[in-house]
Structures are given as structure tokens and as C-alpha cells.
Give the backbone structure.
Amino acid sequence: MRQIVWELHTLLEKASERAPFVLVGHSYGGALVRVYVSTYPSEVAGLVLVDAQHDDFLRLVNDKEVMASTLATGRPIPPVKTAGPLHESDIPPAIRSQIENMAGWNLQHANESPRNKLPIEAQRMRSWATSQVKHAIASNNPFEGDELLAMQTERKSQPYPYGDLPLIVLTRGKPEFDGPNARPMDDERRKNQAELATRSRNGKQIVVEGSGHHIDVERPEVVATAIRDVLAMASKK
């Protein structure tokens, strides 16, 4: 996660984009923009979290419910790598073959509902991106549990880690799981979403009734309004 945030920061610098920014993070991206705030606090003017991943959440591992932070290995989180990127040619053939098989599955399912509502060009881009070996490698983070645990520790150290930062948390209204584990997982999700909004004195949660996880696709006008509202709040500071 720290690696991705550093790469985003470097990309913005090289593109000559000027801070401060209003950052919008959906799902896993919600965790990433929170790491960005912790790493570069002076560069963030506001946050919009769109059904964002929490620092800790229930995951199903071998059909058992576990908190994500319990997957921490205890190993030191490696420093950000600023040079010597991994090349596809460095991947052992057996591992590459497994990744390519999964990439083929991703290609077939890249634009399932509700993503089939995206513009055709966006669907083509998703199909291409999710079928790339580099996409799978970049998504593999063996230290995710440790990074999530570190985020929790930081959160507990202060009541308002984001101070007065304008913050809107958009939460899906519909549960997205079935089966015996659905209710406890959804209860945990709702509790975690409400907690995210308490990290700033200017935090607010909006439950988007009738929408699933992809609020940006199903109710894009809600996301657009939240961005405008955060921009307005930031301009008054």
C-alpha cells in the first residue's frame, strides 16, 4: 500500500499537478487514499470515501471469518522501492502460467454487472487492464495484513487523525453477500463505515440506499455531489 501511494505521489509530481488535492477512493482505493493522507498530510484538502475498505474487516479465508489484521505476518514492512522495478521476464515460468490462467478468467468477468453500465471505452480498458500479468503482480501484497494493522495502531493514537479535514463517507445501502456469513459480515461493514466518518471533525456519512458496492457506477451523481461538497468545504478553510 505504501508502495502504491509513493508511486501515485511521484506520478502527480512528474505530471506537475499542484497540491492540495481532494482524493476520492473507492473500495481498496479508500484505504490507499487514507495512507496518502497519513504520508503527505499537507497535500490533501479533502477526502471522499466511496464504500471504502476499512483498516480492519471480516474476510472469508477457507470458509472461516477472520479479521484482516489477523493475517499480519509480524515481519517488518519493507521500505518503498524507488528503483529497480520488477519485470515480467523476472517471473518464474510456473508462477507466470498460473497468473495467466487467472488473467484469462479476469478477462471473461471484467465487465459483469454493474460494470456493464460503464461506457464502452471504459469496459475495453478494464478488459485490457485486468488481463495483464503486471496487473496481478502489482495487486499482490504479502504485507497487506501488516500494513492494515499499522493503520489501526495509528488510528488509535488520536481521536481525530484527520483533524478538520473535509470528509464524506459514502456507504452502500444494499448488502452484497449471501449465505450464513452474510449478516455478521454486513453488520461489521456498517459499523466500520460509520467509524470512518468519525476520523475528522468535519466528517459525514451518507448511506446510498438502493446502491451496491459500485456506487460510482450505480449512483454516479451522488459521488459527484460529494466531491463538489468537499471542494466547497475545503475552499472555506
Q: What stands out?
A: The first helix runs from residue 2 to 14. Residues 174 and 212 are 5 Å apart (CA to CA).
